[in-house]
């Protein structure tokens, strides 16, 4: 006990020192802070000098506020989702009830409107606590608490991923909220500066907006909504006092844990009520409540109406994957900060209003169609589906739907395969997967190169199934390597010579491989890249021969973008999801902009569009278009039918549909998940539903007609090659830009082994590059001599040399008038030749 006496004397000495010097020190600062510093003994370490050397004004900065993402429903902006690290809804002084203002002042700083930023009486109380051996505590005015929260806000914006970042954050927190004398000195000086710069009402409003109310709830407006489902303006005295009570000890006194034994529903939230009633009593003492108002408020039970402000993309329903895409655009774009950590912090704290490109009319159609044809789960099949659409010419993403429910919660994801965090429509860096093999939809890029190299849609290639030596393919990007490859078709009966148009309409693999064998595989890859195509995981596109048939892994959004470029005269615009961004202060931020590139010459694009109308009108995508508006499209099917695609476009909207295996190898032609049909059969119905909605809203124009050169090609007249050697005939045809094809030996009057004829026949005009079948003669026919005008006897003699049977006429001196077959007709030996013979002139005197 005796040991405490010197300490008590020290306390009295300190208090005496404070009283003795206060009159002189009072002139130093507006709020008489220096005496409070002196009584703690801080003058010994030159803290008064530190105080005087501090900057006078604190940069308040912007409070952390929720970011909100909006979509379009006609002309109306509809909220999709809200994001925040601190749930705060800033309000003005006039939007806060008087009860809340009075409760804050009564409970935290009764002399708020009379001091200059530092309450000297409160400071003395804190000083005495410090002098007797406790930490620096108590005595902080509302202005000082405001300063502390502002400084803490700056800490909360710091990234905390690495060990070094966490250390910096912790240092910042200690500097902002710690109990050291130096920290308190800074707080005082800043408080005085704040009081000089801002009005009392502004400071009180700022404090009520920045204060923490437990958990992620910050600010009086968000607290009113969360705890009582009301607004800050409508708070009653009892509600206001309960909320201000939480500020004192947020973890202990918040009222959203009804099961708490110390502060829960069973005991009427006893701890909060105790502090609440203390504040109400202070309000009564300071005449902010009448006796009846006070009595009524104290009798009012603490009855929270917890109304959570749900955050994140899971609140966006079927638009959640688009929402996730937008979130990642912000976090990946340097416009929102120099590094990802900063961008994430800015997104969650910046109070942005992000107005997106999502069209809820098309989105609803896509969601309903997806739900109808691709179930979230189907037995053991890991079934996935994506529908995504863009606007040609702008790149605006109009819809994005898939067959799964969105979640980022590991527990939810593990509970059911109906949930996924993976966006099937986008690249890996934007929440997507590694992409999916695109099958025959990739053939459009071989078609592009075919046309660029001067070939035409009506030019034919040999589509027979055959074995290729890989070394015969040209690839200026990479070594093709050796070995052989024998590509086949999806359906029987697709061999023979096929035009590029027919190959596109029916998606004939062997024809496109034949086309590619005449081109540079590297240039085909570059054409794909020119249309914005890239691997979803960021690896380089493959350019081997098999890639022609769609072995690259690509995201549906990428394919929709490429087909939009085809429909837009070859001008491809990169996808964008944000129309406008407004900061919390009302200023706009330029959103990431589309970049438009002329992928191919418009003439080539027009020919591509013409060709791609074929699958829609009479080919593999027949049934997709029932709108009457021009539409192009292409199906895609991978090996073993593991992945199915259909990409279509009008001049106004382009869309991609993918359905297939997320993992595994289920044949999409052998399962029947909905409507009693397979996904392979359903894909035209799916795309028809969405594209019909798109046409009904956006319309569509006719595609431009291709020029005759790209459609018909250069026309060549086939010469008469009869009697020439097959080698000479093919050489002549090759020189004309035609391909000579060996035909069978046929009956002909031409010398055996020479050309008997061609198909198409001599004199026919055909497209340069087409094949011409060359038939050789077996020498079995002979041309009949012309015996018309000869005596029958002479005619019979002449014909006997050709071993034919002569019939008709019996007067050897009669004159042959006609012969059947006619003169020059090739016939086989033993063939019958009928002669028509005129009667002989009668002899003189006969009949007399």
The coarse overall form would be: rod-shaped
Largest sheet: 5 strands, mixed
Mean pLDDT: 88
Total strand segments: 30
Helix-strand makeup class: alpha+beta
Radius of gyration over all CA atoms, rounded: 44 Å
Q: Hey, roughly how much beta strand do the residues contain? A: 15-25%
Poorly predicted residue ranges: 1-51, 133-138, 843-848
For the record, give the distance between the C-alpha atoms at the N and C termini, rounded to a whole number: 186 Å
Number of H- or I-type helical stretches: 28
Helical residues, percent = 25-40%
Strand order of the largest sheet: 2-1-3-15-16
Descriptive account of the structure:
It contains 28 helices and 30 strands. It has 848 residues and is an alpha+beta fold.
Please specify the SSE layout and strand pairing.
Layout: H1 4-25, H2 33-39, H3 47-53, E1 67-73, E2 76-83, H4 98-108, H5 120-131, H6 142-156, H7 163-177, H8 181-197, H9 200-210, H10 220-228, H11 237-248, H12 250-253, H13 270-285, H14 291-299, H15 320-332, H16 340-349, E3 353-359, H17 360-373, E4 383-390, E5 397-402, E6 405-406, H18 410-415, E7 419-420, E8 436-437, H19 443-452, E9 460-462, E10 468-469, E11 484-485, E12 497-499, H20 500-506, H21 509-517, H22 521-530, E13 553-554, H23 556-567, E14 571-573, E15 578-582, E16 588-589, E17 596-598, H24 602-618, E18 632-637, E19 643-649, E20 654-661, H25 679-698, H26 708-712, E21 715-717, H27 726-735, E22 739-746, E23 755-759, E24 765-767, E25 771-777, E26 782-783, H28 792-800, E27 805-807, E28 816-820, E29 826-827, E30 832-837
